[in-house]
Amino acid sequence: MKKKVLSLLLACFMTMSLAACGGDKAVDTTGGQNGGGNAAPVVTADPSEIVDGKFVETRKITVEVYDRGNDGGSDPINNMYTDYIKKGMLEDHNVEVEFVAVPRWTEVEQINNLLAASDAPDICLTYDYATIQSYANMGGVLDLAPYV
């Protein structure tokens, strides 16, 4: 079961790396349903850039992780789980993963600030439906179905 979950997680990271840090070929710049057009262009990798499931050149993605601020807890960006993901993504896909800690209880504010500063992680997550809907209306949510 652990292997299956990890495989799914790595597949998601791989999918996002294709969308988040590909070459310089733009796929879609039209934005979301309302055609906002403010989102950055989505880029994909050229098939010649991938050999045996690995990028020829090392790619780098940033991924948000929650910092729950637990006293005595592990470092949210440097622990056995993040190390496992970093190692697996680098070895299996030639993708370097950098984790960005965001305080769990103020995550929406923090992500909004990072987005405003053009410094948001490539992969962000939230459980706040209103935030997801707002980002979707602005063209900031990508349907990954074509990449899976």
The overall strand count is 4
| Uncertain parts | 4-9, 13-38
Q: How are the strands of the largest sheet arranged? A: 1-2
Mean pLDDT: 77
Which overall shape is indicated by the principal axes computed on the Cα atoms? Answer: flat
Identify the CATH architecture. Answer: 3-Layer(aba) Sandwich
Order of helices and strands: HEEEHEHH
Instruction: Work out the helix count.
Output: 4
Structural class: alpha+beta
Main CATH class: Alpha Beta
Oligomer designation? single chain
The CATH topology is D-Maltodextrin-Binding Protein, domain 2
Strand content: 5-15%
Tell me the distance between the termini: 21 Å
Number of domains: 1
The helix fraction, in percent, is: 25-40%
Largest sheet: 2 strands, antiparallel
Cα-atom Rg, whole angstroms? 16 Å
What do these coordinates show?
- This protein has 148 residues and is an alpha+beta fold.
- It has a single domain (2-147), classed as 3-Layer(aba) Sandwich (D-Maltodextrin-Binding Protein, domain 2).
- The protein has four helices and four strands, in the order αβββαβαα.
- The strands form two sheets. A two-stranded antiparallel ribbon has the order 1-2. The protein has a two-stranded parallel ribbon with strand order 3-4.
- β1 (50-51) and β2 (54-55) form a beta hairpin.
- α1 packs across α2.
- The protein is flat and about 40 Å long.
Please outline the helices and strands.
Elements: H1 2-20, E1 50-51, E2 54-55, E3 59-67, H2 80-93, E4 95-103, H3 107-116, H4 129-137
Parallel strand pairs: 3-4
Antiparallel strand pairs: 1-2
Helix pairs in contact: 1-2
